[in-house]
Every structure is written in C-alpha cells, then in structure tokens.
TrEMBL record:
Keywords assigned: Membrane, Transmembrane, Transmembrane helix
Membrane-spanning residues: 12-29, 44-63, 84-103, 109-126, 147-168, 174-194
Entries under InterPro entries matching the protein: DUF2306_membrane
Name by which UniProt lists this protein: DUF2306 domain-containing protein
Length: 204
C-alpha cells in the first residue's frame, strides 16, 4: 500500500515553504532585518548569500505549486513556465550554497553537510531537467519529488535550530548535526514515498 500524505500535511508543508521563502527575501535588503548571525558571519556571505537566498526563496515559493494536478492545457502551460523558473532557481542557488558551505563558521563537519546538500540538490535537478528534455516525464516527476525534498531543507533547518538550542549539547555541535539532519531525512522520506508508489503501481 503506498504511503499517502494527507491534504492537510501537504497544505502545511506548502504554507511553511512559502512562509520561509518570503522571509528569506530579507537577505536581499541592504540592511538585513533579523539576520541569522552564523549566516552573515560566513566569510563568503558578501559573494554568495544574496544569490543563494534569493533564488532559494523563489524555489521554495514555486515548488509546492508543481505538484498541483490538473490536465487542462492552461495548467500544462503554467507547469512548464513555473517549473522552468523553479529549476533555474535551484540550479542557480545550489552553487552559491556550495560556496557558502565552504565558508561555514561551524567548521568542516558543517561544510560537509551543507556542501553535500548543495551538490546533490544540483545533481538531482540536472537529472530532472535531462529527463524532461528527453520526454521521460514519469522519471522527471520522480526527480522533482527528490528536488523539492532537498529544497524543503530550508524549512526543516529552521524547525531544527530552536530544537537544537534546547538540547544539552554545545550549540555548535547541534548545528553540525543539523547540517545533515536538515536534508538527509527529507530525502529518505521522499525515496520511501516514491518506492511505495512504484510498488503499488506494479501490483495493480
């Protein structure tokens, strides 16, 4: 039996993604309000932060709308347009995220966590684009599920940070763990969901 996400869970995820995306646009302002200290302290923030935050925010906002299913021509055109914008945002934000990972203030473990996220995020989207251009739309859809699971790391990161502050460990150690926890479970859940749907389809 396939894993099913309730509509309320999907709506909550979409709402969180849009909210975090809109809030992240603050990094495009000359004077950043409520800036995260670790983020602005990154030694490459002046170079990569506006690109990563701006394009990543756009991807967060556009991402949930890629999974709305309608079969009319207008919806198909809308999907192609917003999907292209989402893909471009991800492919542009990921390299900037890798640059930021190299300047992470929490050291090499955090660099590894966020750096792997950036590399895998770029690769997944590149595979999704390749499948779409080849007309392999079912495969493209699976890559895009993985893509949004990784994009959603921006949300889970912000959910874990206050929880990490409550743990009896040093804040830097919690941050290093969150560099992986923000995206690895997301990707695992996406893979489980995709596998359950494939098994259900094969059993029909």
């Amino acid at each position: 039996m396939p894993i099913v996400l309730s509509r309320s869970a999907q709506a909550l995820a979409a709402l969180l993604a849009v909210a975090v995306g809109l809030f992240s646009f603050r990094y495009l302002l000359p004077e950043i309000p409520l800036a995260a200290p670790d983020v602005v302290a990154n030694r490459f923030a002046h170079l990569a932060l506006p690109i990563h935050a701006g394009l990543g925010a756009a991807a967060l906002i556009l991402g949930p709308f890629q999974f709305i299913r309608r079969r009319d021509g207008r919806r198909a055109r809308w999907h192609r347009l917003t999907g292209a914008l989402y893909m471009a945002a991800c492919l542009g934000s990921a390299p900037a995220g890798l640059i930021l990972a190299l300047g992470a203030t929490a050291g090499p473990i955090a660099t590894a966590g966020f750096g792997l996220l950036a590399i895998i995020w770029f690769w997944v989207n590149a595979q999704g684009l390749r499948a779409a251009l080849a007309g392999r739309y079912a495969e493209h859809g699976r890559w895009m599920v993985r893509s949004f699971a990784l994009t959603f790391a921006a949300v889970t990161l912000r959910l874990y940070l206050p929880l990490g502050a409550l743990l009896p460990v040093a804040s830097v150690d919690a941050y290093r763990a969150i560099a992986f926890l923000a995206w690895v479970p997301n990707l695992l859940v996406a893979e489980l969901w995709l596998s359950s749907r494939l098994r259900a389809a094969a059993g029909r």
